[in-house]
Amino acid sequence: MKRxxxxxxxxxxxxxxxxxxxxxxxxxYTQAMDLHTLELNIQEAISVYLKTASPEEPLPDFVGTWRVxxxx
Length: 72
Hints:
Elements: E1 7-11, E2 18-22, E3 29-32, H1 35-52
Antiparallel strand pairs: 1-2, 2-3
């Protein structure tokens, strides 16, 4: 069975590395210097997460993201 996961990618301001976090899997994240390596790393992180997760726990569904402008 295959399932799609949502990955949010941000660039770390200190190291410049890319950090990917899987929205549907709390605490599942990894980092890499480029997008190709990040994709490979995130696939591995998801596999490890799913092998160690409790099968009874329901996984949340991704709804969307917002960008909110705030005056500061």
